Amino acid sequence: MLKAGVLGAGHLGKIHLKLLKQSTQYELVGFFDSDPEASKAIEAEFGYKSFPSMDALIEACDMVDVVTPTIYHHACAKKVIEAGKHLFIEKPITHTVEEANEIRDLAKKYKVRGQVGQVERFNPAFMAVNKMIENPMFIEAHRLAEFNPRGTDVSVVLDLMIHDIDAILSVVNSKVKNIDASGVSVISETPDIANARIEFENGCVANLTASRISMKKMRKARFFQKDAYISVDFLTKKCEVVKMKDAPKDPDDFAMILTNAEGVKKQIYFDNPNVPENNAILDELEAFANSIATDTTPIVSLRQGAEALRVAMQIIENFKHI
Questions:
Q1: Coil, strand, or helix at residue 296?
Q2: Where does the record place the Gfo/Idh/MocA-like oxidoreductase N-terminal domain (predicted)?
């Protein structure tokens, strides 16, 4: 079992501590948080060992799980990697693209594995259709949340939209060609609602909307490709696949047939893939343990985390030109 420790014991950090304790692939050695009073309270309530310093925790671990505020990601990750320990780091990977690139290069230099906590990649609805998404040419994503002061230290792009940026980059096999975006600050000092249109070199277009001041929650993405439409509801963990194939000469009475302007007939097929229940955070942590054990590239690599951040920062940069 891998000895694991958590840096940062806030809201998400506590969840990671609980799941690492449950995991059959990790031995939770403890945590470090910069707030000594909070650390004492967590240690007393849950029994997790609180370490006196970041260095002491890192020394005791094989893998360190960084769940601090984003602004501290770079400094923490650097210490972890230079100590020769494997790194799991929450999204966004770092505060700047330059920091992300440095972390990626350091991991390669010190020969350690690194994974970014893009949890929607492990959402069972997305995983159920992932292999069915082939060369999508139009993508639409909406990620809406009710207002919560936690996370508003960064733009809604880094807080919410980056989930969809990462998911889309994982299925579009093409480089980003152009980005148009707009963002509005309503309550926070940084944008609370944003829209981005991403054009890829292969012609695919992705239209993304994110808001953290909505009256209701929504996390949906729709993928349109040749002869297929695929929808994913990340919130309810449901998905739907609609496929079109050339209609048979003698379709049955219940077949849904469409005829286009050229007279070509297509039959519509509906598919609702099986979506098994899971804990996405536990799955991403255990997938990382597996990549370490097998010496393979993690599902969400540091390179992919850096690329998602690069696109997110390009979107934010676009706001300045409005």
A1: coil
A2: 3-117
Q: In what order do the strands lie in the sheet with 63-66?
A: 26-32, 2-7, 63-66, 86-90, 114-117
Closest CA to 183 of 151, 149, 217, 209: 209
Six token digits for residue 21 = 């304790």
Handedness of CA 15, 169, 221, 184 (dihedral sign): positive
Cβ neighbours of 69 (radius 10 Å): 13
Q: Which domains does the chain possess? A: 2-118+281-298 (3.40.50.720)
pLDDT digit string, tens, across residues 106-142:
999 999 999 999 999 999 999 999 999 999 999 999 9
DSSP readout, 253-274?
A: TT-EEEE-TT--EEEEEEE---
Name 231's bridge partners.
Answer: 222, 240
CA pair distance 294, 83, nearest whole angstrom: 21
Could you tell me which of 178, 217, 210 has the C-alpha nearest to residue 194? 210
8: left (phi over 0), alpha (psi -120 to 50) or beta: left
Query: How many of the other CB atoms lie within 10 Å of CB of 70?
Result: 22
Q: Find the radius of gyration of the CA atoms of the chain.
A: 22
Q: Among all chains, which residue has been given the structure tokens 């949906």?
A: 220
List C-alpha distances in Å: 46 to 24, 38, 43, 153: 19, 12, 6, 28
pLDDT (tens digit, 9 = 90+) per residue, 120-129? 999 999 999 9
Residue 308's Cα: distance from chain center in Å?
9
Tokens of 35: 């707030």
Burial (CB < 10 A; 0-12, 13-18, 19+), residue 60, is: middle
pTM: 0.91
Q: What is the DSSP string of 40-54?
A: HHHHHHH-PPBPSSH
Phi and psi (nearest 5°) for 194?
A: -150, 150
